[in-house]
Amino acid sequence: MKYDTILFDLDGTLLYTLEDLCDSINHTLTEYGQPTRSLEEVRQFVGNGLRKLVVRALPEHEDYERFDEFLDNFIEYYNTHNLIKTKPYDTVIETTEKLEKMGIKMAIVTNKGQTASESLLDDFFRPHIDIVIGDDGNHKRKPDPEPIEIALKKLGISDKSKVLYVGDSEVDATTAENAGLDYVLCTYGFRDMDVLEQFHPVAYVDTFKSLLEVIK
């Protein structure tokens, strides 16, 4: 096989999380008397972690005087409301199971907070995927390659030549390029094709199961 290790983004790649993120940010915006955001706006806001989502959603951004309090309350609410509408994209579960049976090593690398990421890993992907590197405040976030390096170290991988990164956004493409990895971009995720076509992945995939052809 061309690749024996795959690193996945989470939101927009493995899981459709947009509505729970939108509902949670709007719940918190309403609680603080701020204008709510549309699903389309939130789709454009995600990709750089929960803090950046809050920065983009608040009209005053980081200048909002209760920003830190707002952020903490949003994260607390989202961590307990992230499984209401969230679901795997079509063919994700059966494909990750098949990849495991093929001996492919896998991990998730995301800018989502570590607590929420671990919860979603437990609910959807264990035992097929056991490692998730989320934002725990102790390392840089994507597009910096540091979380990629942490994941590869946990997997015991030093040779990047057979590692594939799979994501759905410009953040993912830039992360993979910064880490020196081949990458695939999923066209069904949170970004439109006019954004994705600016990059040069080894493949674009319209369905998750198409990865099985890419790795051969």
From TrEMBL:
Gene3D superfamilies: HAD superfamily/HAD-like, Putative phosphatase, domain 2. Keywords: Hydrolase. The keyword Lyase does not apply. InterPro entries: HAD-like_hydrolase_sf, HAD-like_sf, HAD-SF_hydro_IA, HAD-SF_hydro_IIIA, HAD_2, HAD_sf, PGP-like_dom2. One of its GO terms (biological process) is DNA repair. GO terms for cellular component: cytosol. One of its GO terms (molecular function) is phosphoglycolate phosphatase activity. This is HAD-IIIA family hydrolase. The lineage of its organism: Bacteria, Bacillati, Bacillota, Clostridia, Lachnospirales.
